[in-house]
């Protein structure tokens, strides 16, 4: 980008003179020829004043698409600990991609029983993070034809979506535990829900399917709570109190796993020597846990970034709906007791 010094050198005048001419300083006294020469050099070099650059930036911002981000939990549910780092990381990916692309008008909305109509106002497109029920599905469809669902795909014939293959991801973790020689494998997980509606959780159903196919399924070793660290801790305390512990657990989130390991540590049970653990998400704290977690890495921020790419493409006129499946990767660390 050309500078005032560049113009001054080419016009053979001082930088101060260039600055005053370009900013229309009425007190400066220069000949018409000098003024014209400065303006011509500035034009040739493509120089823009600070004021002009700011004006153009404001125009760009005002013309950028108005993108809404819809989250499935109310503020009250967030305060109760329902929000999971998994969904938070997806949202961060959405917001980072908006920032990178100069989109400054995105609006975050949460479910509110009294104000659901807010999500249909004044947006060009909508990112829905997490699962929603059929009633809210009807509502968001009124908002725009440009909707991208992240972490669910309620209607892939009409809407774009960014998902992972939960079944494949869970299978990779369970295969790892089975290959380690574990036969008594338990499950600790939460509920995929929207308001009071419980939604199928592929981590749980895949666990049941695979363990049954191996002849190793035991319903008494399945424990369901909420996807929070506190519930992981409380569930593991309950399991320890019952006795007859499994040799290993597949736990549906890193937050729950860290809570569960705290309960095991308090009971003087060692991970992985006495209880092995494989987890899900690979949030940042997974590698820094008291015993680093073997876990399925989900590229949550990339899911969020991809959703913005799809939405902008849809706003630009693409009609064919796309479903993008972001791959996952099993990260093997100490907690699964690699043999």
UniProtKB/TrEMBL annotation:
Domain (HTH lacI-type) ranges: 2-58
Protein name (database record): Transcriptional regulator
The keyword Isomerase is annotated on this UniProt entry: no
Source species taxonomy: Bacteria, Bacillati, Bacillota, Bacilli, Bacillales
Pfam family, one: Peripla_BP_3
Record carries keyword Nucleus: no
Entry keyword set: DNA-binding, Transcription, Transcription regulation
One example GO MF annotation: transcription cis-regulatory region binding
PANTHER family named among the record's database cross-references: HTH-TYPE TRANSCRIPTIONAL REGULATOR EBGR, LACI-RELATED TRANSCRIPTIONAL REPRESSOR
Domain of life: Bacteria
InterPro entries (alphabetical): HTH_LacI (IPR000843), LacI/GalR-like_sensor (IPR046335), Lambda_DNA-bd_dom_sf (IPR010982), Peripla_BP_I (IPR028082)
